[in-house]
Amino acid sequence: MKKIFLFVAVAAMSISASATELFSGSHQVSWNTPLNLEAAKFADAVAGQKIVAAYTDASDGIECKVLNVGSMVPGLKKDNWISGEGTFEFILTQPALEALQAHGLQLIGNHFTLTSVELVDGRVLHEGTTIWAGFFWANDWNNSTLVLNKETATSVDWSGYSAVRVYHEAGRDNFEVNLRRNWDNAGFIVGTDGNFAETMTVTDAEDHSYKEFALTGDARTAATVETDEFLMQCYKGDNQDAFNITDIVLVMENGGTTAIDNTAIEGKAVKSFENGQLVIIKNGVKYNALGAQL
């Protein structure tokens, strides 16, 4: 396994943004009575902020959908269980933000009451395209699989990225982590354990803040395998302490320009989702999330 050591310093700081009330009251949610928040409510939101929903009388799950589209909001767990009274929250990644700004948010589930929904301070995301941000406890193999919704993977076009970084708080590099679309070999994207791991280029930052995996053609193909989930599998290592994993970030090759950057067009681009993929329309021409013309 080839290793390259790099140093990257990224400040983990709070976003300077006031809490914004998106909803306040008492809304009884069911499969027939969702809470719908229109796109205009997210016009001033920024990636890295958190959405916090307060609920009561819950005994099942909550689903966060892109309003009028029906797909799940990218970057969330596949299943989100809530019980009794409390709050449910998630960090807005850039793909999630773009989906909500284009269409809005729908909160739906099996009989619970929402009392408030707010946008609150979060954190500055790392350079690149963050597809998941949060805190996941990496422990033993049997207890360390984060199951995210499929939109976490499908909301971006992996073909324009050179690597994927997994940020962590281990303070060391001797642990295992795999990204996959399913448990078959065809669904193995990148990782330290698996049939393809020995052929991968793995970068460990000198400050032990991330593992970076180079994206090959096979890895990009595996990321598009048609499944209903996106998996991060972790193992803390033998006789090692458990730790948090905090971000999954796609890194764009050479920071290159895209077709949409080089298109001289006045006016605002229109963002939409088609088949779970972000589409940007400028002057009647469609581009994907990376700016490549469709």
CATH class of the largest domain: Mainly Beta
**Ends apart, CA distance between termini:** 36 Å
What is the number of E strands?
A: 20
Structurally, how many domains make up the residues? Answer: 3
Report strand order across the widest sheet.
Answer: 1-14-15-11-17-9
- Spell the H/E element sequence: EEEEEEHEEEEHEEEEEHEEEEE
What is the share of helical residues? under 10%
| Uncertain parts | 1-17, 255-268
CATH topology of the largest domain, which one? Answer: Jelly Rolls
CATH architectural name of the largest domain: Sandwich
Strand content: 35-45%
Output the number of helix runs.
Answer: 3
Describe this entry's structure for a reader.
The chain has 294 residues and is mainly β. It has 3 domains: 138 residues, Jelly Rolls (Sandwich); 101 residues, Jelly Rolls; 31 residues, no CATH class. It contains 3 helices and 20 strands. The chain has a 6-stranded mixed sheet. A 4-stranded antiparallel sheet has the order 2-8-4-6, with no helix packed on it. Strands 10-16-12-13 form a 4-stranded antiparallel sheet. The protein is globular.
